[in-house]
Amino acid sequence: MVWAGICASGKTPLIFVDEGVQINKEVYQRDILEAVVLPWSREHFKNTKWTFQQDSAPTRKAKTTQEWCRAHFPDFITSAEWPPYSPDLNPMDYSIWSILEARVCCRRHQTLESLKQALIEEWGKLSPEVLRPVSENFLKRLRLCQAAKGGHFETD
């Protein structure tokens, strides 16, 4: 599995989770949030106000994960505020993963290591000119989701 996060002004490092590792709430909190997201966000945002947003996967909406986010991030969208089935609102899902897939899978990879290296290379090439519109599109999608009362919605 690969985990990553973006904002209009940057991106976290890619996090590769070894095959066979179960991403439970403890692993998510320790190996992703605490080990990567927290130090990256402190360095990236410094004293700038920002909001952490994640989807409603079970590890993310777990009570201890919500408490962890509340204690460590200046602001975050709680699982209670997030629609239960909303891949259309996650910028990684509605845009970034498909961009990476198109760039990385246009060539064959004989090994998992080759695929990882290609992902790292293409992730490094994602510029603010790509990230900014994806992040800004979030508000448009949020309004469409609200108009659909949390249900499915169509975009341009």
Automatic annotation (TrEMBL):
Q: Name one GO molecular function term.
A: nucleic acid binding
Q: Name one Pfam family in it.
A: DDE_3
Question: Domain named Tc1-like transposase DDE: which ranges?
Answer: 22-116
The entry's protein name is Tc1-like transposase DDE domain-containing protein
